[in-house]
Design goal:
- The structure is a single chain.
- Among the domains are: 129 residues, Immunoglobulin-like; 83 residues, Sandwich (Immunoglobulin-like), CATH 2.60.40.10.
- Helix content is 7%, strand content 43%.
- Strand 41 and strand 42 form a beta hairpin.
- The chain is mainly beta and 571 residues long.
- Strands 12, 13, 14, 15, 17, 19, 20 and 22 form an eight-stranded mixed sheet that branches. Strands 1-16-24-23-18-21 form a six-stranded mixed sheet, with no helix packed on it. The protein has a six-stranded mixed sheet with strand order 26-25-28-33-30-31, with no helix packed on it.
Length: 571
């Protein structure tokens, strides 16, 4: 009976069957010493069904980290999962060795201890795993948490700030479940709608100005947010923090990875009952979540399972809200102005770059998708960015579907979307932008300041997790001088495979056009030499190296005139 029940609910949508539950509010960590334990557990999303999940300091999601700009935090991430993973501080401006990208692996039963100064302005960020080809699984199963940064400029404004009372964390997700009630990932049957891990949640908001710190934490789905009574709400901030002025809207489009700082005035709404909705029926085609996810005939049919998902192209409810009594000393007005911005000016850039999104198979929306004709390779450095460079990146999307593009390290200002200035609600700092499909384009400007590292890269990628896991990603280093890793010529001259490696060995290859290397070294990231060995005379262009100690290492080929260095990850 259970298998039949779950098979049926997948077809018609879980949320129409089960009763409401109170909205879960994640706990907070406010200290400068942060301990996160990544663990497995079970969660009851639906009565009588235990679902296997993952979380940080619990079975699902993680605590909200509340950080103060200017403070230095010390973090311990203890990986008690049976799987290797990473933790990325999405949106945070940190050095690459602290960023938690796919090179900073945390093996099972090991810990990672990043420490960094909070340099971001007040805003909403989040943390989640970022292991290559495993991000979708680990995030879908539950590891994610909000980061709220505070600063003096934001503190001077009259805004709601009492966590869980007039200032609410709102993590929006859709998930897919199999017939046994277990989470499936990389699926287009993400028919379960939840907020903070709660299906069909209800909550009481006070009759005053209420703040919602919204994250689209779904794997793929774009949402068109609004309230059931079509009331106007105010967007006061996006990914990178506050805007200059609030922007009043009835709808706000939010793509995977994006955040929105929203104020809604409920001071005249005591006793009202409203719903937070996604009006997917209003999404234009060529967006995941719309009736037609791509442009062109047959695009729905080309995305496996898409047409069977009742959420696509339909309006659906996230959360039921009842307006109760106001708190003591409530916020009853919304500031007319917020903060000032001084974006880099177009024309002052040091370089412009163009990234082009393409399909592997024309008309197939299942992927893999490519950036500049290639899928991600841990061993290939795509760009070297000089420290303090001001750069303009133009993203051109030749695929039929919109892609939410995310870059690590920096926040950017959007200059153009399809050749026009961005709408006011996107005029602030962002680290994710939805690039329209079918020859759509986005142009942004950013400055790559503060952090340089010639061995550990930052990522850029599509934040639709199936696309990312299948290789729609690249990497760059920010360099204060000559790179120790690669030039394009060296990329072609030296390779390591498999990388990552989990079979106790890896192989070095070099091209015959290069002089034969004299020796090789394997070192830790902090410079400790593990192996320093000559290359045997019999090896003309390749060498197999037995090496089974798990970790991340630098492998250097020593030539007569120069060295070539690559990174290798051993599981």
């Amino acid at each position: 009976m259970k298998k039949l029940l779950f098979a049926c609910t997948l077809c018609i949508g879980w949320a129409n069957i089960f009763a409401q539950s109170p909205l879960y509010i994640p706990p907070t960590i406010t200290s400068e010493t942060i301990n996160l334990t990544l663990q497995e557990g079970t969660t009851t999303f639906y009565e009588g069904i235990e679902t296997n999940t993952m979380g940080a300091n619990g079975s699902l999601l993680g605590p909200t980290l509340i950080l103060q700009r200017g403070n230095t935090v010390s973090i311990t991430v203890d990986n008690q999962l049976p799987d290797t993973t990473t933790i990325h501080w999405h949106g945070m401006h940190v050095a690459p060795q602290n960023d938690g990208g796919p090179h900073s692996i945390i093996l099972p039963d090991e810990i990672w201890t990043p420490s960094f100064e909070i340099m971001d302005q007040a805003g909403i960020n989040w943390y989640h795993p970022h292991l290559h080809m495993k991000t979708g699984e680990h995030v879908s199963k539950g590891i994610a948490g909000l980061i709220i940064v505070k600063d003096d400029e934001e503190a001077a404004l009259e805004l709601p700030r009492t966590y869980g009372v007039d200032d609410f964390p709102i993590i929006l997700q859709t998930k897919g479940f199999d017939a046994d009630g277990q989470i499936i990932f990389h699926t287009n049957l993400d028919t379960s709608v939840m907020v903070n891990g709660t299906v069909k949640p209800f909550v009481e908001f006070p009759a005053q100005v209420v703040r919602m710190r919204v994250l689209n934490g779904s794997s793929q789905r774009v949402m068109e947010l609004g309230f059931s009574d079509n009331r106007t709400f105010q967007i006061i901030g996006t990914d990178g923090g506050l805007l200059e002025d609030p922007v009043g809207l009835e709808r706000y489009r939010i793509a995977p990875g994006q955040r929105a700082d929203i104020l809604v005035d409920l001071s005249a709404s005591l006793g009202d009952n409203i719903q937070l909705m996604s009006y997917a029926s209003e999404l234009p085609n060529a967006i995941y979540g719309a009736t037609q996810p791509g442009m062109g005939a047959g695009m729905t049919g080309s995305l496996i399972g898409y047409s069977s998902n009742p959420l696509n192209g339909s309006d659906y409810e996230f959360m039921d809200i009842t307006v109760g009594a106001a708190t003591v000393d409530p916020i009853l007005t919304i500031p007319a102005t917020l903060i000032s911005h001084s974006p880099p000016i177009e024309g002052t850039e040091d370089i412009s770059r163009t990234l082009t999104f393409t399909q592997t198979v024309m008309g197939d929306l299942n992927g893999p998708f490519k950036i500049n004709g290639a899928t991600f390779d841990m061993d290939v450095l795509n760009y070297t960015v000089p420290l303090d460079n001001i750069e303009i990146w133009t993203l051109t999307n030749q695929t039929p579907i919109a892609h939410p593009f995310h870059i690590h390290d920096v926040q950017f200002y959007i200059l153009e979307i399809n050749g026009s200035s961005p709408p006011p609600e996107l005029s602030g700092l962002n680290d994710v932008v939805l690039v329209p499909g079918a020859m759509g384009s986005v142009k942004f400007i950013a400055q790559f300041n503060d952090f340089a590292n010639d061995t550990i890269p930052y990522m850029y990628h599509c934040h639709m997790l199936p696309h990312e896991d299948m290789g729609m990603m690249g990497q760059f280093i920010v360099s204060a001088g000559t790179s120790g890793i690669t030039s394009d010529e060296h990329n072609k001259a030296f390779s390591i495979y498999p990388n990552p490696s989990n079979n106790g060995k890896f192989k070095l290859d070099w091209t015959a056009s290069y002089a034969k290397p004299n020796s090789y070294q394997i070192t830790t990231l902090d410079g400790k030499i593990i192996i320093d060995s000559e290359i045997p005379e019999m090896n003309d262009t390749s060498l197999e190296i037995p090496f089974s100690a798990p970790g991340t290492y630098l492998v250097t080929l020593v030539l007569d005139q120069s060295n070539i260095t690559r990174k290798v990850v051993i599981f």
